[in-house]
Specification:
Elements (H helix, E strand, L loop, with lengths): L7 H21 L2 H16 L5 H13 L7 H11 L2 H12 L14
């Protein structure tokens, strides 16, 4: 459990405000900024692991979860390469934006 100096109502309000403002940030983002962000994420996912320990940690999660999807990063990169800004905004409005999301689930801090 993590405790902070702010009360839970304040933290919840700040989270909701962040979500509201971030949608506007997505709308204001130019196509070149969006594409640069996507390419940066793709490069990050394609980075070679620096040590055997890092590689073990990555694959251990697959083994422990019994998923064995060792090609998951490749799948994620393939999806990222096809991602459009409109796709992200549609997802945001369907699942994240409380005002428009039929699938919205709010997390309350207690």
């Amino acid at each position: 459990m993590v405790e902070g100096e702010n009360n839970l109502a304040y933290v919840t309000k700040r989270i909701n405000e962040f979500i509201r403002q971030y949608r506007q940030k997505l709308l204001d983002m130019t196509m070149s900024e969006f594409e640069a962000a996507v390419q940066s994420l793709i490069r990050l996912k394609q980075d070679k692991l620096k040590s055997v320990s890092a590689e073990f940690s990555r694959f251990r999660g697959h083994i422990v979860s019994n998923k064995y999807n060792f090609g998951k990063l490749g799948d994620e990169v393939a999806h990222l390469e096809q991602l459009r800004k409109s796709d992200l905004l549609t997802f945001w409005d369907k699942y994240v934006n409380a005002a428009t999301a039929p699938q919205y689930t709010r997390v309350d801090l207690q």
